[in-house]
Design goal:
Aldehyde Oxidoreductase, domain 4; binds pterin cytosine dinucleotide; 6-stranded mixed beta sheet; 25% strand; 27% helix; 7-stranded mixed beta sheet; Aldehyde Oxidoreductase, domain 3; 782 residues; globular
């Protein structure tokens, strides 16, 4: 049996459970809990004049009705602004229940608790809210005009305005560099709103026993939810536990902490002394969670005869919806990650984050990068078209060379740290991609085109993540880390790391994530950070355990720790395999307190001489047990990269667009599990195809979301997503012990750019907005 598991395509261990209905999602818990439903605003902008709950009080099974007036001061405060930024001069967050003004359809106004959800919904229907409708501002450009305000005290609806500029080596600013360039182009690019849309919506279940609060939440960040709840409810942290059970997808929307429901449900559970649960329905998810992507981008580029970009000026209008709970992280990521694998002469980017009377914006898988990559890759294609050169050649002349790392883009990344690329090999990646898709042999024909898109992605953002590893006397290894899982396969990859580091069969390793009882300090799962952050922390914790195991075994075997190895669960003397001791026995020896009925303990007595009579049973500076905890805190992010190519066919009559081939070359450093990474990329590409061809939030002028159901919001099926051909390039990150970079968002990031590039090639029409439907393509043709 091999114990070298890092890098192998180990089958996902969670799948048998998840695929056979054994998963335990939020709504599988708390069958007897009281149910919560919300009255949500039907108006995009209105003043709440009065709320009459009288009729609802007669509903049989009604337990309680709460409006903002009923909330204690701590609970009723505006929700926290999670990532402040000096440029966010007018950050605004919602109250957990509307206080006076509602600013988008779906904002929670009244909370109803009843014995079941049906009764709670019945009671909601009987509550009369007297709204004074105010004029809503819906379109991004209309809102930027500033004539009508979303927040009375935010002039021009501008939440934030930020300008960043990197001058050229010759000291030219972007405008000067563009002006001085032999060629110039200016154009506008639009990306519409979309959303994460996990299969399982949000949900919260809370139980109060008079002293301790236990909360289950379908979240991407249980430790932060815990801190938020403790703060809002005035409870000491050790008396609050938050557990993320199986989570049916998050894709970004579940990183917000706390959602109003995550405060209100535990508060009601404490007040009522009963278990209380809220499960989001699909319509609620559409109108009251979060969206992303909506941006208008104006680009001016100056370049030379080879296509080298000498100056780039980008101005972005970012639609932030009604609130900024997650700060302005999305447009900051667009601004800084737009540069991709390229060396750009001089660069200036400016964005305004604009409030509109629509659902708030928080990161969705890719988080601002799909917009930035659309911008840069459309730019590369336009340069190639202008110069009559091959699109890959233009990219290649702009690439940062493999010998130029670390490469400083001279900007500040989203975490406030310098934007320095640590490693990569972009020319080699392009060579691999061209070969994989057959770029040079592609036969172009009317209605058949090929497209390309490249990106660089900062992954593994800090500040830290931790891991705890314990070997028990049965030889099992228990790994825990505080971040949560939403389907990424963490139970498998973290077990692979522990099994490799400790030399034990993977079957003996179990992994727990997202349970604050097991691990209290964590940041969460987002920004493709779990593998880098928890992966390295778990490896470091394993190394501590390994060192201790070798020390104890060396005593027992009367050998030097340097002469020992651990393999197949045995600590062995190198070169003398018969001299060995099971790791389970080492775990027994690590604890001076042994139970008489423990078989392992009985076997361990033969090593009793290991304890020296002149030192205490637990030596000073030591701890009982064979376990270790460690944290990984990077100096800065590590930069993954990728290049995608697609072949599309468009129907000459119906303008239907079909993606017939899709190829990906990807570099996430050392692969822990290539099969899982490929699965992540496939899922991301499917999501990206949705964003390129189908998914958009359609608001009318009154701020009503017209397609708030899966009947009307199109998502791709397997029939729309081709087999994704994948190749890996591994340039290890020098920044972390395992050499890993992240992979979880990679698939989605360049897809809109790639599909636009391919349609443009097939049709000879410039594609400057995404998504594009057959009817829009039809119109562009005519
Ligand atoms: N991996 C690996 N080798 C590497 C890098 C990653 O084997 N060199 C593996 C990891 O161990 C992990 C997976 O690939 O199992 C993704 O790793 P990572 O890039 O660290 O991303 P996270 O685990 O932090 O996941 C977050 C990322 C994000 S930001 C979104 S959004 C997203 C995504 O993952 N949401 C998802 N993938 C998702 N997949 C599912 N099924 N559901 C979601 O909600």
């Amino acid at each position: 049996m091999t114990t070298r598991l890092f890098g192998e395509p180990v089958q996902r261990r969670e799948d048998p459970r998840l695929l056979t209905g054994q998963g335990r999602y939020l709504d599988d818990l708390g069958a007897d809990a009281l149910a919560v439903a919300f009255v949500r605003s039907p108006h995009a902008h209105a003043r709440v004049r009065d709320i009459d709950v009288t009729a609802a009080l007669d509903v049989e099974g009604l337990i309680a009705v709460y409006t903002w007036e009923d909330l204690p001061e701590r609970v009723g405060r505006p929700l926290p602004l999670l990532i402040p930024h000096p440029a966010l001069t007018h950050g605004r967050t919602a109250y957990p229940l509307a206080r006076e003004i509602v600013r988008h359809v779906g904002e929670p106004v009244v909370m109803v608790v009843a014995t079941d959800r049906y009764l709670a919904e019945d009671a909601c229907a009987l509550i009369e809210v007297d709204y004074e409708p105010l004029k809503p501002v819906v379109g991004l450009e209309e809102a930027a005009h500033g004539a009508q305000l979303v927040h009375e005290d935010v002039p021009g609806n501008v939440g934030a305005h930020l300008v960043q500029e990197v001058t050229s080596a010759a000291g030219l600013g972007a405008a000067e560099a563009v002006e001085a360039a032999p060629h110039r182009l200016s154009f506008r690019l639009d990306i519409e709103r979309s959303a994460s849309m996990p299969l399982e919506g949000r949900g919260v279940l809370a139980r109060w026993d008079g002293s301790d609060l236990r909360v289950y939440s379908s979240t991407q960040t249980s430790t932060s939810v815990r801190m938020a709840i403790a703060a809002a409810l005035g409870l000491p942290l050790p008396h609050v536990e938050v557990i993320a059970p199986d989570v049916g997808g998050g894709f970004g929307v579940k990183i917000v902490h706390p959602w109003p429901e995550e405060i209100l449900v535990p508060w009601a559970a404490m007040l009522l002394g009963r278990e209380v649960k809220w499960t989001e329905d699909r319509r609620e998810h559409f109108v009251s969670s979060a969206h992303e992507r909506g941006q208008v981008q104006h680009v001016t580029v100056g370049f030379d005869d080879e296509g080298r970009v000498l100056g780039l000026d980008v101005s972005i209008l970012h639609d932030h919806g009604a609130y900024t709970p997650y700060g302005i992280i999305v447009p900051i990521i667009t601004s800084t990650q737009l540069l991709g694998p390229y060396r750009i002469g001089a660069y200036r980017v400016e964005f305004s984050a604009i409030y509109t009377n629509t659902v708030q914006v928080t990161p969705y898988r890719g988080a601002g990068r799909p917009q930035g990559v659309f911008c840069m890759e459309r730019t590369m294609d336009k340069i190639a078209r202008y110069l009559g050169r091959d699109r890959t050649e233009v990219r290649a002349v702009n690439f940062i060379g493999p010998d130029e790392f670390p490469y400083d883009q001279k900007m500040t990344f989203q975490d406030g740290r310098p934007l320095i690329y640590d490693s990569g090999d972009y020319p080699e990646m392009l060579r691999m991609l061209k070969e994989l898709i057959g770029w040079d042999d592609f036969r172009r024909a009317p209605g058949r085109g090929i497209g390309i898109g490249c990106y660089v992605e900062g992954t593994g953002v800090g500040p830290y993540e931790g891991g705890h590893v314990q070997v028990t006397s049965d030889g099992r290894v228990h790994v825990s880390t505080g971040l949560t899982s939403q389907g990424q396969g963490h139970e498998t990859v973290f077990a692979q790391i522990a099994a490799t580091e400790l030399g034990v069969p993977i079957e003996r390793v179990s992994v727990v994530t997202g349970d604050t009882r097991r691990f209290g300090y964590a940041v969460g799962t987002f920004a493709s950070r779990a593998a880098v952050m928890s992966g390295n922390a778990i490896a470091l914790a394993c190394r501590k355990v390994r060192a201790k195991a070798l020390r104890i075994a060396a005593d027992a075997l009367e050998a030097d720790p340097a002469d020992l190895e651990i393999a197949d669960g045995l600590v062995r003397v190198l070169g003398a395999p018969s001299a060995s001791i099971p790791l389970s026995t080492v775990a027994v020896l690590a604890n001076p307190l042994r139970y008489a009925f423990d078989d392992e303990a009985a076997r361990a007595t033969q090593f009793a001489g290991a304890a020296s009579p002149d030192r205490p049973p637990v030596a000073e500076g030591d701890e009982p047990g064979l376990e270790g905890r460690d944290y990984y805190s990077p100096i800065r992010s590590t930069f993954a990269s990728g290049m995608h190519a697609a072949i599309v066919e468009t129907d000459p009559d119906t303008a239907e667009i079909r993606v017939v081939r899709y190829a990906v070359v990807h570099d996430c450093g050392r692969l822990i599990n290539p099969m899982i990474v490929e699965g992540q990329i496939h899922g991301g590409v499917a999501q990206g195809i949705g964003g390129a061809l189908y998914e958009r939030m359609v608001y009318d002028g009154h701020g009503q979301l017209l397609n708030a159901s899966f009947m009307d919001f199109l998502m791709p099926y397997a029939t729309e997503v081709p087999h994704v051909e994948t190749a890996h390039l591994e340039t290890p990150s020098p920044l972390n012990p395992l050499g890993i970079k992240g992979a979880g968002e990679a698939g989605v990031i360049p897809v809109s750019a790639v599909i636009a590039s391919a349609i443009e090639d097939a049709e000879g029409i410039e594609i400057d907005r995404m998504p594009i439907s057959p009817s829009e393509l039809f119109e562009l043709r005519h």
